[in-house]
Amino acid sequence: MQPRLSLDKDKLKFLLLEGIHPSAVEALKQDGYHQVETHTHAPIGAELIKAIGNAHFVGLRSRTRLTEEVLSQAPKLTAIGCFCIGTNQVDLRAAARRGIPVFNAPFSNTRSVAELVLGEIIMLLRNIPEKNAILHREGWVKSASNSYEVRGKTLGIIGYGHIGTQIGVLAEQLGMAVIFYDIENKLALGNARPMHSLVDLLESADVISLHVPETSATQNMIAAPQIAQMRRGSCLINASRGTVVDIQALVDALESHHLQGAAVDVFPAEPKGNDEPFKSPLVRFDNVILTPHIGGSTAEAQANIGVEVVTKLIRYSNNGSTTSAVNFPEVSLPEHSGKCRLLHIHRNVPGVLARINERFSQAGINIAAQYLQTSVDVGYVVIDVDASASEIALDQLASIEGTIRCRILY
Ligand SMILES: NC(=O)C1=CN([C@@H]2O[C@H](COP(=O)(O)OP(=O)(O)OC[C@H]3O[C@@H](n4cnc5c(N)ncnc54)[C@H](O)[C@@H]3O)[C@@H](O)[C@H]2O)C=CC1
Ligand SMILES: O=C(O)C(=O)COP(=O)(O)O
Protein backbone atom coordinates (compact mmCIF):
# COMPACT_ATOMS: atom_id res chain seq x y z
CA MET A 1 0.00 0.00 0.00
CA GLN A 2 1.12 3.52 -0.78
CA PRO A 3 1.15 5.36 2.59
CA ARG A 4 1.52 8.90 1.14
CA LEU A 5 -0.96 10.31 -1.32
CA SER A 6 -1.31 13.82 -2.60
CA LEU A 7 -2.78 14.40 -6.03
CA ASP A 8 -4.43 17.11 -8.10
CA LYS A 9 -8.09 16.68 -9.07
CA ASP A 10 -7.22 16.00 -12.69
CA LYS A 11 -5.12 12.99 -11.66
CA LEU A 12 -7.83 11.40 -9.53
CA LYS A 13 -9.75 8.65 -11.31
CA PHE A 14 -13.38 7.82 -10.54
CA LEU A 15 -14.70 4.42 -11.61
CA LEU A 16 -18.51 4.31 -11.71
CA LEU A 17 -20.11 0.88 -12.19
CA GLU A 18 -23.60 -0.60 -12.70
CA GLY A 19 -25.12 2.24 -14.71
CA ILE A 20 -24.91 4.89 -11.98
CA HIS A 21 -27.04 7.87 -13.01
CA PRO A 22 -25.36 10.54 -15.22
CA SER A 23 -26.12 13.09 -12.48
CA ALA A 24 -23.06 11.67 -10.71
CA VAL A 25 -20.71 12.33 -13.63
CA GLU A 26 -22.17 15.80 -14.06
CA ALA A 27 -21.59 16.66 -10.39
CA LEU A 28 -18.01 15.38 -10.60
CA LYS A 29 -17.26 17.43 -13.71
CA GLN A 30 -18.76 20.54 -12.17
CA ASP A 31 -16.33 20.17 -9.29
CA GLY A 32 -13.34 19.73 -11.61
CA TYR A 33 -13.06 15.93 -11.62
CA HIS A 34 -12.83 14.90 -15.26
CA GLN A 35 -11.27 11.43 -15.07
CA VAL A 36 -14.44 9.36 -14.86
CA GLU A 37 -14.77 5.83 -16.27
CA THR A 38 -18.30 4.44 -16.41
CA HIS A 39 -19.63 0.90 -16.90
CA THR A 40 -23.26 -0.19 -17.19
CA HIS A 41 -22.73 -3.64 -15.66
CA ALA A 42 -21.17 -5.12 -12.52
CA PRO A 43 -17.73 -6.44 -13.49
CA ILE A 44 -16.37 -9.51 -11.73
CA GLY A 45 -13.01 -11.31 -11.48
CA ALA A 46 -10.16 -10.11 -13.67
CA GLU A 47 -12.30 -7.40 -15.30
CA LEU A 48 -13.13 -5.83 -11.93
CA ILE A 49 -9.55 -6.05 -10.69
CA LYS A 50 -8.23 -4.43 -13.88
CA ALA A 51 -10.75 -1.58 -13.70
CA ILE A 52 -10.26 -0.89 -9.99
CA GLY A 53 -6.46 -1.27 -10.08
CA ASN A 54 -5.80 2.40 -10.90
CA ALA A 55 -8.99 3.98 -9.49
CA HIS A 56 -8.91 6.43 -6.59
CA PHE A 57 -12.67 6.34 -6.08
CA VAL A 58 -15.15 3.62 -7.00
CA GLY A 59 -18.93 3.90 -7.21
CA LEU A 60 -21.12 0.80 -7.33
CA ARG A 61 -24.66 -0.36 -6.69
CA SER A 62 -25.91 -3.58 -5.10
CA ARG A 63 -24.25 -6.15 -7.33
CA THR A 64 -20.50 -5.46 -7.42
CA ARG A 65 -18.70 -7.45 -4.72
CA LEU A 66 -15.77 -5.60 -3.17
CA THR A 67 -14.16 -8.40 -1.19
CA GLU A 68 -10.89 -8.24 0.73
CA GLU A 69 -9.24 -9.93 -2.26
CA VAL A 70 -10.49 -7.23 -4.66
CA LEU A 71 -9.55 -4.42 -2.24
CA SER A 72 -6.07 -5.86 -1.87
CA GLN A 73 -5.58 -5.23 -5.59
CA ALA A 74 -6.76 -1.61 -5.48
CA PRO A 75 -3.68 0.18 -4.06
CA LYS A 76 -4.85 3.69 -4.94
CA LEU A 77 -8.41 3.35 -3.70
CA THR A 78 -9.23 6.30 -1.43
CA ALA A 79 -13.00 5.98 -0.88
CA ILE A 80 -15.95 3.83 -1.97
CA GLY A 81 -19.44 5.09 -2.80
CA CYS A 82 -22.37 2.66 -2.66
CA PHE A 83 -24.98 4.40 -4.84
CA CYS A 84 -27.74 2.58 -2.95
CA ILE A 85 -28.70 1.76 0.65
CA GLY A 86 -27.24 -1.71 1.17
CA THR A 87 -23.51 -1.93 1.88
CA ASN A 88 -23.39 -5.71 2.33
CA GLN A 89 -21.64 -6.05 -1.06
CA VAL A 90 -18.51 -4.39 0.36
CA ASP A 91 -16.21 -5.91 2.98
CA LEU A 92 -16.57 -2.86 5.23
CA ARG A 93 -14.01 -3.92 7.81
CA ALA A 94 -11.41 -4.79 5.20
CA ALA A 95 -11.96 -1.37 3.62
CA ALA A 96 -11.58 0.37 7.01
CA ARG A 97 -8.38 -1.54 7.76
CA ARG A 98 -7.01 -0.17 4.48
CA GLY A 99 -8.03 3.36 5.41
CA ILE A 100 -10.90 3.48 2.91
CA PRO A 101 -14.19 5.09 4.03
CA VAL A 102 -17.41 3.76 2.51
CA PHE A 103 -20.39 6.06 1.87
CA ASN A 104 -23.95 5.23 0.79
CA ALA A 105 -27.31 6.92 0.12
CA PRO A 106 -29.45 5.96 3.11
CA PHE A 107 -32.69 7.72 2.08
CA SER A 108 -32.92 8.61 -1.59
CA ASN A 109 -34.62 5.47 -2.92
CA THR A 110 -36.75 4.58 0.12
CA ARG A 111 -39.96 6.16 -1.17
CA SER A 112 -39.57 4.26 -4.45
CA VAL A 113 -39.40 0.92 -2.62
CA ALA A 114 -42.36 1.87 -0.42
CA GLU A 115 -44.52 2.75 -3.43
CA LEU A 116 -43.66 -0.51 -5.23
CA VAL A 117 -44.52 -2.58 -2.16
CA LEU A 118 -47.78 -0.71 -1.66
CA GLY A 119 -48.81 -1.54 -5.24
CA GLU A 120 -47.82 -5.17 -4.74
CA ILE A 121 -49.93 -5.50 -1.59
CA ILE A 122 -53.04 -4.49 -3.56
CA MET A 123 -52.15 -6.67 -6.55
CA LEU A 124 -51.48 -9.75 -4.41
CA LEU A 125 -54.65 -9.48 -2.32
CA ARG A 126 -56.71 -9.15 -5.54
CA ASN A 127 -54.85 -12.12 -7.04
CA ILE A 128 -54.03 -9.94 -10.05
CA PRO A 129 -50.71 -11.59 -11.03
CA GLU A 130 -52.53 -14.89 -11.73
CA LYS A 131 -55.44 -13.21 -13.54
CA ASN A 132 -53.04 -11.16 -15.64
CA ALA A 133 -51.07 -14.28 -16.61
CA ILE A 134 -54.27 -16.13 -17.63
CA LEU A 135 -55.35 -13.30 -19.93
CA HIS A 136 -51.89 -13.18 -21.50
CA ARG A 137 -52.51 -16.83 -22.43
CA GLU A 138 -55.90 -15.88 -23.94
CA GLY A 139 -57.89 -17.27 -20.97
CA TRP A 140 -60.76 -15.51 -19.12
CA VAL A 141 -61.57 -16.23 -15.47
CA LYS A 142 -63.98 -13.59 -14.14
CA SER A 143 -64.36 -14.50 -10.50
CA ALA A 144 -64.21 -12.97 -7.02
CA SER A 145 -62.59 -15.99 -5.45
CA ASN A 146 -59.31 -15.25 -3.64
CA SER A 147 -59.81 -11.51 -4.26
CA TYR A 148 -59.87 -9.24 -1.24
CA GLU A 149 -59.85 -5.55 -0.39
CA VAL A 150 -56.80 -4.39 1.53
CA ARG A 151 -59.02 -2.31 3.81
CA GLY A 152 -59.20 -3.95 7.21
CA LYS A 153 -56.38 -6.45 6.50
CA THR A 154 -53.23 -6.59 8.59
CA LEU A 155 -49.82 -5.73 7.15
CA GLY A 156 -46.81 -7.14 9.02
CA ILE A 157 -43.56 -5.27 8.46
CA ILE A 158 -40.28 -6.93 9.40
CA GLY A 159 -37.58 -4.26 9.75
CA TYR A 160 -39.24 -0.97 10.71
CA GLY A 161 -36.58 1.40 9.36
CA HIS A 162 -36.65 4.09 6.67
CA ILE A 163 -38.57 1.91 4.20
CA GLY A 164 -40.69 -0.12 6.63
CA THR A 165 -42.02 2.99 8.39
CA GLN A 166 -43.02 4.68 5.11
CA ILE A 167 -44.88 1.58 3.96
CA GLY A 168 -46.68 1.46 7.30
CA VAL A 169 -47.84 5.07 6.97
CA LEU A 170 -48.99 4.58 3.35
CA ALA A 171 -50.78 1.30 4.16
CA GLU A 172 -52.73 2.94 6.99
CA GLN A 173 -54.06 5.46 4.45
CA LEU A 174 -55.59 2.47 2.66
CA GLY A 175 -57.26 1.31 5.86
CA MET A 176 -54.83 -1.48 6.73
CA ALA A 177 -53.86 -2.32 10.30
CA VAL A 178 -50.07 -2.23 10.62
CA ILE A 179 -47.91 -4.34 12.92
CA PHE A 180 -44.14 -4.52 12.88
CA TYR A 181 -41.18 -6.41 14.28
CA ASP A 182 -37.70 -4.92 14.67
CA ILE A 183 -34.70 -5.87 16.77
CA GLU A 184 -34.42 -2.25 17.90
CA ASN A 185 -36.95 -0.34 19.95
CA LYS A 186 -38.69 1.86 17.35
CA LEU A 187 -41.13 4.74 17.49
CA ALA A 188 -44.44 3.43 16.09
CA LEU A 189 -45.87 5.84 13.51
CA GLY A 190 -49.62 6.36 13.21
CA ASN A 191 -51.49 3.44 14.74
CA ALA A 192 -48.78 0.86 13.98
CA ARG A 193 -48.22 -1.70 16.75
CA PRO A 194 -44.88 -3.29 17.62
CA MET A 195 -44.84 -7.09 18.02
CA HIS A 196 -42.73 -8.60 20.78
CA SER A 197 -41.50 -11.48 18.65
CA LEU A 198 -41.18 -12.49 15.03
CA VAL A 199 -43.58 -15.37 15.69
CA ASP A 200 -46.26 -12.97 16.96
CA LEU A 201 -45.97 -11.01 13.74
CA LEU A 202 -45.95 -14.07 11.49
CA GLU A 203 -49.10 -15.42 13.09
CA SER A 204 -51.01 -12.14 12.95
CA ALA A 205 -50.57 -10.68 9.43
CA ASP A 206 -52.36 -11.12 6.10
CA VAL A 207 -49.40 -9.71 4.17
CA ILE A 208 -45.80 -9.71 5.37
CA SER A 209 -43.19 -7.41 3.90
CA LEU A 210 -39.46 -7.69 4.61
CA HIS A 211 -37.28 -4.59 5.05
CA VAL A 212 -34.22 -5.76 6.94
CA PRO A 213 -30.59 -5.41 5.83
CA GLU A 214 -28.46 -8.41 4.85
CA THR A 215 -26.69 -9.54 8.02
CA SER A 216 -25.81 -12.90 9.54
CA ALA A 217 -29.01 -12.63 11.64
CA THR A 218 -31.28 -12.04 8.62
CA GLN A 219 -29.82 -14.88 6.54
CA ASN A 220 -32.75 -17.24 5.79
CA MET A 221 -34.76 -15.38 8.40
CA ILE A 222 -37.88 -16.57 6.56
CA ALA A 223 -37.47 -20.31 6.03
CA ALA A 224 -39.87 -23.28 6.28
CA PRO A 225 -40.63 -22.96 10.06
CA GLN A 226 -41.39 -19.22 9.75
CA ILE A 227 -43.56 -19.69 6.64
CA ALA A 228 -45.47 -22.41 8.48
CA GLN A 229 -46.23 -19.83 11.18
CA MET A 230 -47.72 -17.44 8.62
CA ARG A 231 -51.49 -17.50 8.16
CA ARG A 232 -52.82 -19.85 5.49
CA GLY A 233 -53.67 -17.74 2.43
CA SER A 234 -51.36 -14.88 3.39
CA CYS A 235 -48.80 -13.24 1.08
CA LEU A 236 -45.05 -12.58 1.37
CA ILE A 237 -43.16 -9.63 -0.12
CA ASN A 238 -39.38 -9.45 -0.23
CA ALA A 239 -37.73 -6.28 -1.54
CA SER A 240 -34.87 -6.39 0.99
CA ARG A 241 -32.12 -8.89 0.12
CA GLY A 242 -32.31 -12.28 -1.59
CA THR A 243 -30.57 -14.05 1.27
CA VAL A 244 -33.37 -13.22 3.73
CA VAL A 245 -35.83 -15.79 2.31
CA ASP A 246 -35.18 -19.49 1.77
CA ILE A 247 -36.43 -19.76 -1.82
CA GLN A 248 -37.08 -23.51 -1.67
CA ALA A 249 -39.27 -23.01 1.41
CA LEU A 250 -41.20 -20.31 -0.48
CA VAL A 251 -41.60 -22.62 -3.49
CA ASP A 252 -42.95 -25.39 -1.22
CA ALA A 253 -45.43 -23.00 0.42
CA LEU A 254 -46.70 -21.80 -2.98
CA GLU A 255 -47.02 -25.34 -4.23
CA SER A 256 -49.02 -26.42 -1.18
CA HIS A 257 -51.13 -23.21 -1.45
CA HIS A 258 -50.20 -22.31 2.13
CA LEU A 259 -49.39 -18.86 0.68
CA GLN A 260 -51.78 -17.11 -1.72
CA GLY A 261 -48.94 -15.31 -3.49
CA ALA A 262 -45.63 -13.51 -3.22
CA ALA A 263 -43.73 -10.57 -4.66
CA VAL A 264 -39.98 -10.94 -4.93
CA ASP A 265 -37.59 -8.19 -6.07
CA VAL A 266 -34.30 -9.58 -4.77
CA PHE A 267 -32.71 -13.00 -5.19
CA PRO A 268 -29.89 -15.05 -3.65
CA ALA A 269 -28.09 -14.94 -7.02
CA GLU A 270 -28.85 -12.11 -9.43
CA PRO A 271 -27.64 -11.66 -13.03
CA LYS A 272 -24.62 -9.35 -13.26
CA GLY A 273 -26.16 -7.33 -16.10
CA ASN A 274 -29.17 -7.04 -18.39
CA ASP A 275 -27.70 -9.47 -20.94
CA GLU A 276 -27.54 -12.40 -18.50
CA PRO A 277 -30.55 -14.74 -18.14
CA PHE A 278 -32.56 -14.90 -14.91
CA LYS A 279 -32.97 -18.38 -13.40
CA SER A 280 -35.22 -19.11 -10.44
CA PRO A 281 -37.63 -21.87 -9.38
CA LEU A 282 -40.18 -19.07 -8.85
CA VAL A 283 -40.64 -18.34 -12.56
CA ARG A 284 -43.29 -21.03 -12.96
CA PHE A 285 -45.74 -19.49 -10.45
CA ASP A 286 -48.38 -17.17 -11.92
CA ASN A 287 -49.21 -15.89 -8.44
CA VAL A 288 -45.71 -14.50 -7.85
CA ILE A 289 -44.77 -10.99 -8.95
CA LEU A 290 -41.13 -11.11 -10.01
CA THR A 291 -39.20 -7.88 -10.49
CA PRO A 292 -35.49 -7.55 -11.36
CA HIS A 293 -34.24 -5.78 -8.21
CA ILE A 294 -35.84 -2.50 -9.21
CA GLY A 295 -37.34 -1.47 -5.87
CA GLY A 296 -35.14 1.63 -5.86
CA SER A 297 -34.91 2.03 -9.63
CA THR A 298 -36.93 5.13 -10.41
CA ALA A 299 -35.79 8.21 -12.30
CA GLU A 300 -36.20 10.35 -9.19
CA ALA A 301 -34.33 8.04 -6.83
CA GLN A 302 -31.42 7.36 -9.18
CA ALA A 303 -30.88 11.03 -10.08
CA ASN A 304 -30.89 11.97 -6.38
CA ILE A 305 -28.59 9.12 -5.39
CA GLY A 306 -26.09 10.10 -8.12
CA VAL A 307 -25.69 13.57 -6.66
CA GLU A 308 -25.93 12.51 -3.00
CA VAL A 309 -23.14 9.95 -3.04
CA VAL A 310 -20.86 11.91 -5.35
CA THR A 311 -21.22 14.90 -3.02
CA LYS A 312 -19.99 12.74 -0.14
CA LEU A 313 -17.03 11.48 -2.19
CA ILE A 314 -16.13 15.00 -3.33
CA ARG A 315 -16.39 16.33 0.19
CA TYR A 316 -14.01 13.64 1.43
CA SER A 317 -11.64 14.26 -1.46
CA ASN A 318 -11.63 18.07 -1.16
CA ASN A 319 -12.04 18.56 2.56
CA GLY A 320 -11.47 15.26 4.40
CA SER A 321 -14.97 15.11 5.94
CA THR A 322 -16.25 11.59 6.53
CA THR A 323 -19.73 12.49 7.78
CA SER A 324 -22.12 9.54 7.35
CA ALA A 325 -19.38 7.05 6.37
CA VAL A 326 -20.66 3.60 7.31
CA ASN A 327 -17.35 1.97 8.31
CA PHE A 328 -15.11 4.82 9.39
CA PRO A 329 -14.64 7.44 12.11
CA GLU A 330 -17.01 10.30 11.25
CA VAL A 331 -15.50 13.79 11.16
CA SER A 332 -17.30 16.88 9.87
CA LEU A 333 -14.66 19.46 9.02
CA PRO A 334 -14.76 23.20 8.37
CA GLU A 335 -13.05 24.71 5.31
CA HIS A 336 -9.28 24.95 5.53
CA SER A 337 -8.66 28.05 3.40
CA GLY A 338 -5.19 29.53 3.85
CA LYS A 339 -3.86 26.28 5.35
CA CYS A 340 -2.80 22.86 4.12
CA ARG A 341 -4.79 19.98 5.52
CA LEU A 342 -3.14 16.66 6.34
CA LEU A 343 -5.19 13.50 6.68
CA HIS A 344 -3.66 10.69 8.72
CA ILE A 345 -5.36 7.32 8.93
CA HIS A 346 -3.81 4.88 11.37
CA ARG A 347 -4.44 1.63 13.18
CA ASN A 348 -6.32 2.41 16.37
CA VAL A 349 -3.51 1.66 18.84
CA PRO A 350 -2.64 3.74 21.92
CA GLY A 351 -0.32 6.73 21.63
CA VAL A 352 -0.53 7.67 17.94
CA LEU A 353 -1.79 11.21 18.55
CA ALA A 354 0.86 11.76 21.22
CA ARG A 355 3.56 10.61 18.80
CA ILE A 356 2.26 12.92 16.05
CA ASN A 357 2.26 15.91 18.37
CA GLU A 358 5.74 15.08 19.66
CA ARG A 359 7.15 14.80 16.11
CA PHE A 360 5.50 18.04 15.00
CA SER A 361 6.79 19.84 18.05
CA GLN A 362 10.34 18.56 17.48
CA ALA A 363 10.18 19.63 13.81
CA GLY A 364 8.85 23.08 14.79
CA ILE A 365 5.57 22.62 12.88
CA ASN A 366 2.76 24.78 14.18
CA ILE A 367 -0.66 23.07 14.27
CA ALA A 368 -3.45 25.48 13.29
CA ALA A 369 -6.26 22.99 13.94
CA GLN A 370 -6.51 19.32 14.80
CA TYR A 371 -9.39 16.81 14.77
CA LEU A 372 -9.42 13.18 15.89
CA GLN A 373 -12.01 10.46 15.73
CA THR A 374 -11.59 6.73 16.20
CA SER A 375 -13.52 3.54 15.53
CA VAL A 376 -12.74 -0.05 16.52
CA ASP A 377 -9.93 -0.59 14.02
CA VAL A 378 -9.07 2.84 12.72
CA GLY A 379 -8.06 6.28 13.97
CA TYR A 380 -8.47 9.36 11.78
CA VAL A 381 -6.52 12.54 12.55
CA VAL A 382 -6.88 15.70 10.51
CA ILE A 383 -4.32 18.47 10.99
CA ASP A 384 -4.21 21.94 9.40
CA VAL A 385 -0.74 23.48 9.03
CA ASP A 386 0.91 26.34 7.10
CA ALA A 387 1.58 25.46 3.46
CA SER A 388 5.32 25.99 3.96
CA ALA A 389 5.40 23.16 6.54
CA SER A 390 3.15 20.70 4.73
CA GLU A 391 5.73 18.52 2.98
CA ILE A 392 7.83 18.08 6.15
CA ALA A 393 4.66 17.40 8.10
CA LEU A 394 3.58 14.73 5.61
CA ASP A 395 7.04 13.08 5.90
CA GLN A 396 6.67 13.04 9.67
CA LEU A 397 3.17 11.55 9.49
CA ALA A 398 4.12 8.87 6.96
CA SER A 399 6.89 7.57 9.24
CA ILE A 400 4.72 7.20 12.36
CA GLU A 401 4.23 3.62 13.50
CA GLY A 402 0.71 2.39 12.82
CA THR A 403 0.15 4.65 9.77
CA ILE A 404 -2.21 3.16 7.21
CA ARG A 405 -2.09 6.11 4.85
CA CYS A 406 -1.82 9.89 4.82
CA ARG A 407 -2.40 12.60 2.30
CA ILE A 408 -2.31 16.37 1.81
CA LEU A 409 -5.25 18.48 0.73
CA TYR A 410 -4.09 21.77 -0.70
N1 LIG B 1 -35.07 -3.75 -3.56
C1 LIG B 1 -34.37 -2.64 -3.62
O1 LIG B 1 -34.12 -2.09 -4.69
C2 LIG B 1 -33.89 -2.02 -2.36
C3 LIG B 1 -33.62 -2.79 -1.26
N2 LIG B 1 -33.20 -2.22 -0.10
C4 LIG B 1 -32.94 -3.09 1.05
O2 LIG B 1 -33.82 -2.72 2.09
C5 LIG B 1 -33.12 -2.74 3.33
C6 LIG B 1 -33.81 -1.85 4.34
O3 LIG B 1 -33.67 -0.50 3.95
P1 LIG B 1 -33.98 0.68 4.98
O4 LIG B 1 -35.35 0.56 5.51
O5 LIG B 1 -33.61 1.94 4.31
O6 LIG B 1 -32.93 0.34 6.12
P2 LIG B 1 -32.96 0.82 7.63
O7 LIG B 1 -31.58 0.56 8.14
O8 LIG B 1 -33.54 2.16 7.75
O9 LIG B 1 -33.98 -0.22 8.32
C7 LIG B 1 -33.68 -1.55 8.54
C8 LIG B 1 -34.39 -1.98 9.81
O10 LIG B 1 -34.22 -3.38 10.00
C9 LIG B 1 -34.00 -3.62 11.38
N3 LIG B 1 -33.35 -4.91 11.54
C10 LIG B 1 -32.05 -5.24 11.34
N4 LIG B 1 -31.85 -6.53 11.59
C11 LIG B 1 -33.04 -7.05 11.96
C12 LIG B 1 -33.48 -8.33 12.35
N5 LIG B 1 -32.62 -9.36 12.41
N6 LIG B 1 -34.78 -8.50 12.67
C13 LIG B 1 -35.65 -7.45 12.64
N7 LIG B 1 -35.29 -6.21 12.28
C14 LIG B 1 -34.01 -6.02 11.94
C15 LIG B 1 -33.15 -2.44 11.82
O11 LIG B 1 -33.18 -2.27 13.22
C16 LIG B 1 -33.82 -1.30 11.06
O12 LIG B 1 -34.85 -0.70 11.79
C17 LIG B 1 -31.70 -2.31 2.94
O13 LIG B 1 -30.74 -2.76 3.85
C18 LIG B 1 -31.52 -2.94 1.58
O14 LIG B 1 -30.92 -4.21 1.73
C19 LIG B 1 -33.06 -0.86 0.01
C20 LIG B 1 -33.32 -0.05 -1.06
C21 LIG B 1 -33.71 -0.57 -2.35
O1 LIG C 1 -30.40 0.52 -2.23
C1 LIG C 1 -30.30 -0.72 -2.16
O2 LIG C 1 -29.84 -1.31 -1.17
C2 LIG C 1 -30.76 -1.53 -3.27
O3 LIG C 1 -30.95 -2.70 -3.13
C3 LIG C 1 -30.88 -0.91 -4.60
O4 LIG C 1 -29.90 -1.54 -5.35
P1 LIG C 1 -29.57 -1.05 -6.84
O5 LIG C 1 -28.90 0.29 -6.74
O6 LIG C 1 -30.85 -0.98 -7.58
O7 LIG C 1 -28.64 -2.10 -7.35
From TrEMBL:
UniProt pathway: Amino-acid biosynthesis; L-serine biosynthesis; L-serine from 3-phospho-D-glycerate: step 1/3
Catalytic reaction equation(s): (R)-2-hydroxyglutarate + NAD(+) = 2-oxoglutarate + NADH + H(+); (2R)-3-phosphoglycerate + NAD(+) = 3-phosphooxypyruvate + NADH + H(+)
Protein name: D-3-phosphoglycerate dehydrogenase
The ACT domain, residue ranges: 341-410
Membrane-spanning parts: none
CDD domains xrefs: ACT_3PGDH (cd04901), PGDH_3 (cd12176)
Family: Belongs to the D-isomer specific 2-hydroxyacid dehydrogenase family.
Superkingdom of the organism of origin: Bacteria
InterPro entries: ACT-like_dom_sf, ACT_dom, AHAS_small-like_ACT, D-2-hydroxyacid_DH, D-isomer_2_OHA_DH_cat_dom, D-isomer_DH_CS, D-isomer_DH_CS1, D-isomer_DH_NAD-bd
Protein purpose: Catalyzes the reversible oxidation of 3-phospho-D-glycerate to 3-phosphonooxypyruvate, the first step of the phosphorylated L-serine biosynthesis pathway. Also catalyzes the reversible oxidation of 2-hydroxyglutarate to 2-oxoglutarate.
Entries under Gene3D superfamilies matching the protein: 3.30.70.260, NAD(P)-binding Rossmann-like Domain
SUPFAM superfamilies: ACT-like, Formate/glycerate dehydrogenase catalytic domain-like, NAD(P)-binding Rossmann-fold domains
Alphabetical keyword list: Amino-acid biosynthesis, NAD, Oxidoreductase, Serine biosynthesis
One Pfam family of this chain: 2-Hacid_dh_C
NCBIfam families: PRK11790.1
Entry's EC annotation: 1.1.1.399, 1.1.1.95
GO molecular function: (S)-2-hydroxyglutarate dehydrogenase activity; NAD binding; phosphoglycerate dehydrogenase activity
Enzyme class: oxidoreductase
Cited PANTHER family: D-ISOMER SPECIFIC 2-HYDROXYACID DEHYDROGENASE FAMILY PROTEIN (AFU_ORTHOLOGUE AFUA_6G10090)
Gene Ontology biological process terms from the UniProt entry: L-serine biosynthetic process
